[in-house]
Amino acid sequence: MLGFERLGVLPHERFERLALRHPEMPLLLTLLSHHGCPAGGFDETVTGLDHLAFRTPSPADINTWRQWLATQQVNCSDVKDGALPGSRLITFRDPDGIQIECYCS
What we know:
Layout: E1 5-11, E2 15-21, E3 28-34, E4 51-55, H1 59-71, E5 80-81, E6 88-93, E7 99-104
Parallel strand pairs: 4-7
Antiparallel strand pairs: 1-2, 2-3, 5-6, 6-7
């Protein structure tokens, strides 16, 4: 959905890694899925990942992402001010409930 290309799956006895890259950015992203994780979904109040953020080049890109996510039926926040002066952001959640943020500072 975010435009990443699948490079491959790297299996391991305890987990599986999915390697992704974005064709327009010098970015490699590796996602891990651990075997035997307890059910119940993600909880950012437990030690580990709080959220994942992607920086965009301009504030206009935040609006573009917001519009595109809406076409994909993704529930997303309105565009809002970030913590830093002049920053803008949107947030949404992936299928596991992990918050994803697109921001420009």
